[in-house]
Amino acid sequence: MDARTLIISAPAILFGLSFHEFMHAYVAYKLGDPTAKLVGRLTLNPLKHLDLIGTLALFFFRIGWAKPVPINPYNFKDVRKGVVLSSLAGPMANFFSAMVFGIFYRLIHPTSLFWNLLLRSFVIYNLILAFFNLLPIPPLDGSKIFMYILPYKYRERYMEVENYGFYILIGLIFLGSLIGIPILWEVISPFINFFYQIFTGRGI
Which residues are catalytic? Predict the structure, then answer.
């Protein structure tokens, strides 16, 4: 990614990360868990949400994350429903944001390079955050959803992976960089390409 594209992508990345985490906090709060609100995470301020490694990874590898919003599942009336819905909130917020920016892109047909790249960045980075975070690798949102749809007898075994999830994630990113095959991108890119084309009317 060249410097110009990197700079133009920054607003899209900051928005996508912040809105993602805000929606986790908002849905958890609405379902009865005030934990995120009490620690100042019920906000769109990106400074409250950014994780240094995750943000840099998103800029340079197109794969990244923010600081997880703290959630206490025991504050939910229905623990499984609360965890699944609050975990889905972030990826779904990014998905619908990508759709809105894609529709806007189609409507205005930007002719200037700046607006063309900016709007396309909002679409692609929101799609990246949506589908990447749905991977069932701890601590990503998909792992929490996957854990609570697993039969109970397998749940505890899956939870043991959580202690190593971050290292697995980092390892896959850097292994992909070393061998020249972006492993995680290969998994999520078909979904990103498909919806990007639907939302914007063009390929990436």
Answer: 21
